[in-house]
Amino acid sequence: MSKNKMLSRALIAVLAGAAAFGAQAADKGFYAGAGVGQSFVDEGNYDDEDTAFSVFGGYQFNRYFGLEAGYADFGKLEPRGNGAELEANSVYLTAVGTVPITDSFSAYAKAGFQRWDLDTAIPGVVGNDDDSGTDPTYGVGVQYRFTDHVALRGEYSRFEIEDTDLDLAQIQVRYDF
Questions:
Q1: What does DSSP assign to residue 83?
Q2: Fewer CB within 10 A of the end CB, N or C, for the chain?
Q3: Which among 115, 109, 150, 110 has a CA at the least distance from the CA of 133?
Q4: Which alpha helices (DSSP H) does 53-108 contain, by range?
Q5: How far apart, in whole angstroms, are the C-alpha atoms of residue 120 and residue 78?
Q6: Cβ–Cβ under 8 Å, residues 131 and 118
Q7: Alpha-carbon gap, residue 86 to 64, rounded angstroms
């Protein structure tokens, strides 16, 4: 094969890669949002739900992958019998994998770590009588994009707090910059 043919093929491959990157460039950038929904716990003496909210922000590297950080407040969860209210919040960092279904609709999954904080340590629910710690968090969701900048998301996430699972179901609004 001649050097000219090799250089031509290499140039075509580079241009095709640049075109693919350029097509993805529209699907990248910073975003922020907020959500409201229900938190749930069903562990030990606790079986309750309350209104919860979250705020989040992230960076979309391409249409398939992003990183997201956020804050979730789970509200007040009451015990079934005797015991203290469970008031918890979390600061988290997750990797988000997205699967586009149509131009406007996509599904996503996320996983990462969170730093949780309880207002009061709850013996028997959280081990070692701790009132803060670091544990995994993960979730799934769907997103519908109304415009290039505004999307509506439905998300279900689990926040592990040692041996206790706090679940969060939300409707979120996302704004892309």
A1: S
A2: N
A3: 115
A4: none
A5: 13
A6: yes
A7: 36
| Entry field: residues in the chain | 177
Question: In terms of pLDDT, which residue wins out, 164 or 107?
Answer: 107
Q: What are phi and psi of 141, to 5 degrees?
A: -165, 175
Indicate the SS3 state at residue 63: coil
CB atoms within 10 A of CB 7: 10
Token pair recorded at residue 144: 């519908």
- The torsion angles phi and psi of 81, rounded to 5 degrees, stand at -125, -130
Q: What angle do CA 163, 107, 168 make, to 5 degrees?
A: 30
Task: Judge whether residue 37 has pLDDT over 80.
Answer: yes
Judged by DSSP in three states, 161 sits in strand
pLDDT at residue 24 tops 80: no
Nearest-angstrom CA–CA distance, 89 and 167: 12
Residues 33/155, Cβ–Cβ less than 8 Å: no
User: If you average pLDDT over residues 53-77, what whole number do you get?
Assistant: 94
pLDDT at residue 33 is higher than 80: yes
Task: State both tokens at 143.
Answer: 């997103």
Closest CA to 147 of 110, 173, 171: 173
pTM of the complete model: 0.77
